[in-house]
Amino acid sequence: MFYLTATEMVELLRTRRIGAVELLRAHLDRIEEVNPRVNAIVTLAAERALLEAAEADRDLARGRPRGPLHGLPVAHKDLTDTAGIRTTYGSPLFAGHVPGRDSPIVRRMREAGAITIGKTNTPEFGTGSHTVNELFGATRNPYDLSRSAGGSSGGAAAALAAGMVPLADGSDMGGSLRNPASFCNVVGLRPTPGRVPSPSPAAAWFTLGVPGPMARTVADLALLMSVVSGFDAASPLSIAESGAAFAEPLETDLTGLRVAWSPDLGGLPVDVETAKVTADAPAVLARLGARVERVEVDLSDAEDAFRIYRAWYYALSYGDLPRERLGPNVRWNVEQGLGLTGADLARAERLRSGLYLRMRDFFAAYDVLVAPVSQVPPFPVEAPYVSEINGEALPDYLAWMRSAYWISVLHAPAASVPCGFTPGGLPVGVQIVGRPFADLEVLRLAHAFERATGHGTRRPPCR
Predict the structure, then answer these.
(1) Strand partners of residue 433
(2) Secondary structure class of 242 (helix, strand, coil)
(3) Contact 374/439 with Cβ under 8 angstroms?
(4) In sequence order, which residues have a C-beta less than 8 Å from that of residue 341 and are 6 or more positions away?
(5) What distance in Å separates the CA atoms of residue 95 and residue 117, rounded to the nearest whole number?
(6) Phi then psi dihedrals of residue 213, to 5 deg
(7) Phi and psi at residue 14, to the nearest 5°
(8) What is the CA angle 300-271-156, rounded to 5?
(9) Mean pLDDT of 134-144
């Protein structure tokens, strides 16, 4: 039961062929079975969830469904505030923190009838694409427990892959949603900034970090997007469109779609196994009717723009916390931010503005850009980060994520979709990047690619 899609579960609940309590217990049993080895869910709210599931069953018996997710168990990233449920942000500084209110994405999921089953692991303040922290340790990849689940939404991706929940939320600044989706053979959407509101008391106009949906199928991503997207006056960048369009069928004719294929995003080092797996993507897209062209795209201006804006955000958000109690990655980012000058910020803005205008011309010639999500397959869980690719040493813990964080600078939607497996059985994904605001078009192509390959139906060996 726990590997049904979310849309299938919703239909079974709606027609009362299963009950919310029955469905929740199946997932709690699955969590008890596999989470001790995977370490994806770090706070379990079982008693509260059972009470809410019983109430959901009573509501449905009275003919009062709450919304599109009625009775569906979900998990929330431990960066995301949940009223009455511990939210640590992966930091010892907040080990006992219990928020008084839900974040907007949690509130919208609950208003749609979802039942919170628990919180998923994340590195401290979501820093880095490897999910490990001092409080809870590392999340392991369900496809190979000796490997990383990615990050920073690694707990969400691993929980989905292992059948612990059918839907989860994540967030993405430099690939934190796309990278773990790729590593764990699930799907995720980094929405256009503002598509899913993200109010902030300190950085309300910051667009690199966005919340987004994660699931096992693209149709389930769309289901969640139909609930969590839409205008929120508390978020000044939120897009004044409802999520209704995401509830429509995803099937579409791809004949003539103009696809730009970039195997390395302009010369980035790509692990040989990752390169071999993702090289299959153009042929799949061509069989679907798309016109695929290999391109040389120059996104190198995104490098400094991303690093400067990211450092500024860390100084703004965490610069007042006791430096000696922060982990090394967070501390390094904060120190980078505190050393910025006005000239640095001006440079970042010029670089990003110029890149945006060049990519506007690019997306006039092509409908989507397709490229590897990550430059490497899942790496050993004991490693703090990837330090070299194909023998090329990398300068710091961020550098191996360039294929993801360069895309973050484009203000564009990007979906991570399974593309295949290495000879050792490790998942590899591709990202489908659309024009800004073309989130639905990205999901439609991702849905077609998913259906054509079937890679997402291959389950992990963990039992």
Answers:
(1) 369, 414
(2) coil
(3) no
(4) none
(5) 19
(6) -90, 150
(7) -60, -40
(8) 85
(9) 98
Domain ranges across the chain:
6-457
What CATH class has 6-457? alpha beta
- Cβ neighbours of residue 103 closer than 8 Å, sequence gap 6 or more: 80, 81, 82, 211
Question: 346-391: per-residue pLDDT in tens?
Answer: 999 999 999 999 999 999 999 999 999 999 999 999 999 999 999 9
The Cα–Cα gap between 317 and 228 comes to: 24
CA dist 212 → 167, 256, 411 (Å): 11, 29, 14
Just list the catalytic residues: 77, 152, 176
Selection from 172, 177, 175, 214 nearest residue 193 by Cα: 172
Q: What is the pLDDT of residue 420?
A: 98
pLDDT band at 242 (very low <50, low <70, confident <90, very high): very high
For residue 366, what are its two tokens? 């092509």
Count CA atoms within 13 Å of residue 173 on its CB side: 21
> Residue 463 has what pLDDT?
63
Residues 199-228: tens digit of each pLDDT: 998 899 999 999 999 999 999 999 999 999
Rounded distance between C-alpha atoms, residue 111 and residue 210, angstroms:
21
| Mean pLDDT value of segment 286-290 | 98
Q: What SS3 string covers 105-155?
A: HHHHHHHCCCEEEEEECCCHHHCCCCCEECCCEECEECCEEEEECCCCCHH
Q: For 286, left (φ over 0), alpha (ψ -120 to 50), or beta?
A: alpha
DSSP H/E element including 171: strand 167-172
Please answer whether residues 73 and 27 qualify as being in contact, where contact means their C-beta atoms are separated by less than 8 angstroms.
Answer: yes
* pLDDT-based confidence at residue 410 (cuts at 50, 70, 90): very high
Closest CA to 264 of 279, 253, 252, 254: 279
When the pLDDT of each residue in the chain is averaged and rounded to a whole number, the result is: 97
Q: How far, in Å, CA of 131 to CA of 150, rounded?
A: 6
Hey, is 309 helix, strand or coil? Answer: helix
What angle, 0 to 180 degrees and rounded to 10, lies between the N-to-C axes of helices 20-38 and 154-161?
A: 120
Closest CA to 321 of 31, 76, 74, 93: 93
Please report where in the chains the tokens 């509130």 appear, as a residue. 107
Q: How far apart are CA 351 and CA 367, in angstroms?
A: 23
Q: Do 186 and 161 contact (CB within 8 A), yes or no?
A: yes
**Helix-then-strand count for the chain, H and E:** 14, 17
pLDDT over 70, % of the chain: 100
Q: How confident is the model at residue 462 (pLDDT cuts 50, 70, 90)?
A: confident
Which residues lie below 8 Å from residue 121, measured CB to CB, with a gap of 6+? 39, 40, 41, 42, 78, 90, 131, 133, 136, 139, 154, 155, 158
